[in-house]
Design a protein that fits this description.
The complex is a heterodimer.
Chain A (H helix, E strand, L loop, with lengths): L1 E9 L4 H11 L4 E8 L5 E9 L2 H13 L3 E6 L5 E12 L5 H10 L3 E5 L3 E8 L1 H10 L5 E6 L3 E4 L8
Antiparallel strand pairs in A: 1-3, 1-4, 2-3, 5-7, 5-8, 5-9, 6-7
Chain B lengths: L1 E3 H11 L4 E4 L6 H8 L5 E4 L3 H15 L3 E5 L3 H15 L4 E7 L15 H5 L5 E4 L6 H13 L5 E7 L8 E3 L19 H12 L4 E5 L1 H5 L3 H11 L3 E3 L14 E4 L6 H9 L2 E5 L5 H4 L10 E6 L13 E4 L2 H14 L6 H15 L15 H11 L5 E4 L3 H9 L8 E2 L10 H11 L5 E6 L9 H7 L5 E6 L4 H10 L15 H7 L3 E5 L2 H13 L5 E6 L35
Parallel strand pairs in B: 2-3, 2-4, 4-5, 5-7, 6-7, 9-10, 9-12, 10-11, 12-13, 13-14, 15-16, 15-17, 17-18, 18-20, 19-20
Antiparallel strand pairs in B: 1-8
Helix pairs in contact in B: 1-2, 1-6, 3-4, 3-16, 7-12, 9-12, 10-13, 14-15, 14-20
Classes of the chains: A alpha+beta, B alpha/beta.
């Protein structure tokens, strides 16, 4: 099963490689990984998407906890949560397709943020499957480039992952 | 007090109470070596290869419980230390390794003797640091020693670039009194509710087993384990790492378990209905085939490392905490409570165990015309009155040592259990001897293992660490040969050496005493003679039976109840060797 693990980690050189190294050394799989400093500059927040059975996920969270730089973590899959991914997508446009792509974009609540005579850049956020659906809806031949951030997430309600 | 970076490093070691530092100089650590030159509190032990430094520090740590400290230069000095760091890591041994690094401005430029030590060691340390500012030295050292010695112990590497120790830059020095790390707070006490449940389950057992590992020794909980076991009257087995954590001569002890454990310990585990694992991690050499492991048992697991729990085997009652306080709580609950162990069931269980013990699974041919390796270890046990510190290398001799030297005290049995590092024994023995100069220290080894760190014989002479080397020389990598005999139809692929050195001459060349023992009747007198030479390192080359195997054996992929036993004792051995 797919899990989203949210990690607060000391914002120090090498912290990311400790996490990445743990996954490769123990043969766990990383589907995606996003990381950025938090409002407290000494901390980074990492969102890691992985998959595995219950026993593997338990080991992953325990092994992550064991890393000295890891301060706190939660498995978002354990609770009700919201997840979002950012996608930037560059498509070829022609006089015939321009309108159609614009309409698709509106339906998916995306924004066109760059326009040339031959292309659009579309910005879209949402759960990963919505982004998948948008890609599937666009003619594959017209896609020039897709950039996805990987999902990030937050739990619902008043509680949060913080120190 | 204004000090240079190099002086700060040395002062940090003094403030940590470090007695010995095991090391080897080189370009990147010259400033550090100069700072060491000006003082006498921290004694530097010059090894002959950096692997030896880490093993010696490791032996010192295992024998004392204090962290072993190592100093190596950058590049090859650092990489040579890696095997010893990984060895300490797999056995959870507290160690602090200071490695030199090229100066910060040239890091990443493939400078002379540059390797990314922090990167290389990341998977085999508890934690590591790269110091980038002289102001960070003191705090980093404080953290390093704290991390290495608390929680589940382990090695910590501190990579120190050369410019950080520049003799021209001085700053005020103050060693932090306390360390606080928001990301590192190991659990000490176990959950009381879980402990209560565990006690209730233990008391309900009809066929209980206590399975105790190295965590008991690391956690200083031998006394508590002994008290608990005697209070319950339950049988106890130790892992290879746990030997000495419970007195081997106590009637409750039914021997080591696992791949080369006793028949009774493994059968006991297999038939048991309640197992309490104490400071043990269900290693594959202990469990055998996981799907057949302890099929009838409910399992209690006490471990300081949450990640050890349910890693290989699902447990019913996990208790995260230090072994000592958890056992203390258990003992108190047992004493307070009205419930007592089921005496009748226990008597039946002990009867069952006695029938397994009657099989005498360690029996060997005592009438052989050859020296049996088991016999050498037995005689060593008697000559040293069971009170020596025994280090070992890795292979058959290690198993014979574990089977036939009965350890009654913790920290006496010093071997590389997790990583299985050949070459560990001799340098480790030097570290042990430095820690306990008056004690008998013996390294049980084989002619293959000993050659992996034989250069440390020179260190033993320079630093006057008279250890006894018990070389069980069968002309083979015995354990490899045994597996090849069992599993590869006796195709002894590269497991023997045609050019084994004359160890007597070699020992003499290094300035020690060499002895070659070829007949069983000479074993005892030779050992007595060697141990009488208190101030000499003696290399005892025992020419042992080339065909001897370690029994019993759980072959790879088999369960505890599926042991390969020796053919009936006394049956002539007619195996042809290459």
């Amino acid at each position: 099963m797919r899990h989203i693990i949210s990690i607060l980690i000391e914002n120090e050189a090498g912290a990311l490689s400790r996490v990445a190294g743990l996954f490769s050394a123990r043969g766990y799989n990383i589907e995606s990984l996003t990381v950025a400093p938090t409002e407290d500059e000494t901390l980074s927040r990492m969102t890691l998407v992985t998959a595995g059975n219950e026993q593997i996920i338990e080991q992953i969270t325990k092994q992550l906890h064991k890393l000295i730089d890891v301060v706190k973590l939660i498995d978002l899959a354990d609770s009700v949560h919201i997840e979002r991914e950012l996608m930037l997508l560059k498509v070829k446009t022609t006089d015939e397709t321009r309108e159609e792509i614009k309409r698709m974009c509106d339906i998916f609540r995306g924004k066109i943020i760059d326009v040339t005579s031959k292309s659009y850049v579309v910005e879209m956020t949402g759960p990963s499957d919505k982004l998948d659906a948008f890609i599937a809806a666009i003619n594959n031949d017209s896609i020039i480039e897709v950039v996805r951030s990987g999902p990030t997430g937050i739990s619902r309600g008043e509680n949060g992952l913080r120190l | 007090m204004e000090l240079t970076g190099a002086q700060i490093v040395v002062q940090c070691l003094k403030d940590e109470g470090v007695e010995f530092i095991f090391g080897y100089p080189g370009g990147a650590v010259l400033h550090l070596y100069d700072a060491l030159f000006h003082q006498e509190d921290v004694k530097h032990i010059l090894v002959r290869h950096e692997q030896g430094a880490t093993h010696a520090a490791d032996g010192y740590a295992r024998a004392t419980g204090k962290p072993g400290v190592v100093l190596v230069t950058s590049g090859p000095g650092a990489t040579n230390a890696v095997t010893g760091i990984a060895t300490a890591h797999l056995d959870s041994i507290p160690m602090v390794v200071i490695s030199g690094q090229v100066a910060t401005p040239v890091i990443g430029s493939d400078a002379f003797q540059e390797v990314d030590m922090v990167g290389i060691t990341r998977p085999c340390v508890k934690h590591n640091f790269l110091i980038k500012d002289i102001k960070d030295i003191a705090e980093t050292f404080k953290k390093a020693f704290h991390v290495a010695t608390t929680g589940r112990p382990g090695p910590v590497v501190i990579d120190v670039p050369k410019d950080i120790t520049d003799p021209n830059i001085k700053i005020p020095y103050k060693y932090p009194k306390k360390v606080s790390m928001r990301s590192y707070n190991p659990v000490v006490k176990g959950h009381k509710g879980q402990i209560k449940k565990a006690v209730a389950l233990l008391l309900s057992a009809k066929k209980p087993m206590i399975y105790a590992g190295g965590g008991v020794i690391l956690g200083g909980a031998s006394k508590q384990l002994t008290e608990l076991t005697r209070l319950l009257g339950y049988p106890i087995t130790n892992t290879l790492m746990g030997l000495g954590g419970f007195p081997a001569t106590d009637k409750h002890f039914i021997g080591m378990l696992g791949m080369h454990g006793t028949y009774e310990a493994n059968m006991g585990m297999h038939e048991s209905d309640v197992i309490i694992a104490i400071g043990a991690r269900f290693d594959d050499r202990v469990t055998g085939k996981l799907t057949e492991f302890c099929p009838y048992a409910k399992i209690i697991h006490i471990d300081i490392d949450p990640a050890s729990i349910a890693k290989n085997v699902k447990v019913d009652i996990p208790i995260v905490g230090e072994v000592k306080p958890v056992l203390e709580t258990m003992i108190a609950l047992l004493k307070e409570g009205k419930n007592k162990p089921n005496k009748k069931a226990l008597a039946t269980w002990w009867e069952q165990i006695a029938t397994w013990q009657a099989l005498d699974s360690f029996a060997y041919d005592r009438d052989s015309e050859f020296i049996k390796p088991q016999y050498v270890v037995e005689q060593l046990y008697e000559v040293t009155k069971g009170d020596a510190f025994i280090t070992s290398d890795v292979g058959q001799h290690q198993m014979f040592a574990a089977q036939f030297y009965h350890f009654d005290k913790p920290r006496r049995w010093i071997n590389s259990g997790g990583l299985g590092t050949m070459g560990f024994g001799l340098p480790a023995a030097i570290g042990v001897k430095l820690a306990h100069p008056k004690a008998d220290v013996a390294c049980i080894t084989g002619e293959a293992s000993i050659q992996m760190c034989i250069q440390e014989l020179s260190t033993a002479l320079q630093f006057k660490t008279p250890v006894k080397i018990i070389n069980l020389n069968n002309g083979y990598m015995g354990m490899v040969r045994q597996w090849q005999e069992f599993s590869y139809n006796s195709r002894y692929s590269h497991s023997y050496m045609d050019t084994i050195p004359e160890f007597v001459k070699l020992a003499e060349a290094y300035g020690h005493v060499g002895m070659r023992i070829e007949k069983p009747e000479d074993v005892r007198p030779a050992l007595e003679e060697a141990f009488a030479m208190k101030d000499r390192t003696v290399f005892m080359d025992f020419m042992t039976d080339r065909t001897e195997n370690v029994y019993p054996m759980i072959e790879a992929g088999k369960g505890h109840h599926d042991m390969r036993l020796r053919v009936a004792p006394g049956t002539p051995i007619d195996r042809e060797l290459a």
